[in-house]
User: Which sequence fits this backbone?
């Protein structure tokens, strides 16, 4: 008994249908691809053109420097912990009717601002606003 089986035909790869499929895929990719450049965004914060600030019965002004240091009503705070900020805000406000005005440097980290917002929530002060400077007036108006 001879179990060896010998093939006489060699397998072939059909190249023409393969090339046709690749050309269709290439055309599809070329038509559906979007080419875009990602440019660096130039952000200059904060500037606002708004109405004059309204008079509030009690304001607690929280200043944030570019380095992330805090001051409440122009009195520097030692430390950056949220619990410490909440305690200082609670004592400076004297109640829950005060408005917290966040006056952050344009180069201050967003985390510093979020810390003040979190501390205000913990202190029970729900009214927040941000201090900005007015942009330069537009000529011709």
Assistant:
């Amino acid at each position: 008994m001879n179990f060896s089986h010998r093939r006489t035909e060699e397998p072939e790869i059909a190249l023409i249908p393969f090339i046709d499929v690749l050309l269709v895929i290439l055309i599809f990719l070329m038509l559906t691809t979007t080419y875009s450049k990602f440019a660096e965004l130039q952000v200059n914060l904060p500037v606002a053109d708004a109405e004059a600030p309204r008079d509030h019965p009690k304001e607690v002004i929280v200043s944030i420097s570019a380095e992330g240091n805090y001051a409440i009503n122009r009195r520097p705070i030692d430390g950056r912990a949220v619990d410490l900020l909440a305690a200082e805000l609670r004592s400076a406000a004297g109640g829950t009717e005060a408005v917290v005005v966040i006056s952050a440097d344009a180069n201050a980290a967003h985390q510093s601002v979020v810390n003040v917002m979190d501390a205000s929530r913990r202190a029970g002060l729900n009214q927040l606003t941000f201090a900005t400077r007015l942009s330069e007036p537009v000529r011709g108006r």
About this structure: The radius of gyration is 33 Å. The domain at 59-130 is CATH 3.30.420.270 (Nucleotidyltransferase; domain 5).
